[in-house]
Amino acid sequence: MRVSFLDLKRQYNMISSEIDVRLNEVLSSCNFILGPNVSLIEKQIAKLCGASYAVACANGTDALVMALEALGIGAGDEVITTSFTFFATAEAIARVGARPIFVDIKESDYNMNENLIEEKITDKTKAIMPVHIFGAPCNMSKINEIAKKYNLKVIEDACQAIGAAHKSEPVGSLSDIACFSFFPTKNLGCYGDGGMMVTDDYEIYEKLKMMRFHGQRIKYENEMMGYNSRLDEMQAAILNVKIAYLDMWNKRRIAIAKRYMTEIKNKDILMPLYREEDSVVFHLFSVKSDNRENLIKLLNEKGIETGIYYRIPLHLQRAFEGLGYSYGDLPVTETLCDKIFSLPIYPEMTEDEVSYVIETLNANM
Ligand SMILES: *Cc1c(COP(=O)(O)O)cnc(C)c1O
User: Fold this and answer.
1) Burial letters 193-226, b for 16+ CB under 10 A, else e
2) 341: nearest Cα among 323, 324, 361, 322
3) How would you write 103-163 as a 3-class SS string?
4) What are phi and psi of 222, to 5 degrees?
5) In angstroms, what is the span from residue 83 Cα to ligand 1's centroid?
6) What is the pLDDT of residue 302?
């Protein structure tokens, strides 16, 4: 049997008739920029997050950049974040001229260790940017408590975690601004690039709307320097179809993850450990092993694709050489990068495919 790491075609084949109708509507309307589909997906995402406002933009990276800028973060400021994430998290911080300060993570759920944040706070610290890695919420109660104590802003990088919840509160409602990505492989993906910023603050909302559109509030009246960073109507139309399925798809991811966690008995594999009170949406299913390269090779020989997220932590990336970090600075992160790998997980995986992954691992201990 062949099990691919991700198969986007299966999902498209399931919903293609709906998608094609909605795309044709956009095409015949010729209303391509900031039309009804964008307004609708903004309303739907705000509702999903239990937040007041959402502003769509071109991608998750832009969402992070504009969120930082809207909160007044720039040159000379420090933003505390994690090194165990996709490059864009810290890239956005550097892009606005601020300095990413990396804290180590927890072995249990690979998220930033909230107990190490306070020791990193200086008089330059302006914000904390937690990342809900692989769809698992950070300990936002604790992070927000620290932010309040030191008067810091919080920006959630929720790009991998749409639909997840911390103590029954959806991610996206747990910070000053939350950022989402609709990159095709994300739990809610469009058919190109897309992003969203979510907030409860009306002034920030107004600012974000201007920022994505050259600083315009009223047509051709520019109040500030902005960006050209909009979600287009075609992508919004796709998202308006797909968002109706998100809960079902996330539940299916959770069911697959449960099977992996209870049925994989291979002693070479260490499972992640998540807080019971949180709802994790398993953007990826990542495990640890001292024997990673052999297991990956074995799975590959049996037709099962795997992935490694992430092999190099951000503090050791060449692009961040200038920050002055070296190997040994973040031991939990560094060890994890040597041991972690991901098994296939996507809603359209069949039970047989999940069983095959489990059996293959259990038969080769
Ligand atoms: C995908 C992702 C981003 C960036 O999103 P794009 O839409 O690709 O720009 C940022 N942070 C994390 C954690 C991501 O997974």
Assistant:
1) bbbbbbbbbeebbebbbbbbbeebeeeeeeeeeb
2) 361
3) ECECCCCCCECHHHCHHHCCCCEEEEECECHHHCCCCHHHHHHHHHHHCCEEEEECCCCCC
4) -100, 120
5) 14
6) 97
- Please work out whether the CB of residue 86 comes within 6 Å of at least one atom of ligand 1: yes
Q: Is 163 in the pocket of ligand 1 (CB under 6 A)?
A: no
According to DSSP, the residues that pair with 364 across neighbouring strands are none
Is the Cβ atom of 125 under 6 angstroms away from ligand 1? no
Rounded to two decimals, what is the model's pTM? 0.98
Query: What pLDDT band is residue 38 in, cutting at 50, 70 and 90?
Result: very high
Question: Separation of 302 CA from ligand 1 center, angstroms?
Answer: 31
- How large is the angle between the packed helices 233-242 and 36-49, nearest 10 degrees? 40
- Per-residue confidence band for 177, with pLDDT thresholds at 50, 70 and 90: very high
Place of tokens 């610290």: 125
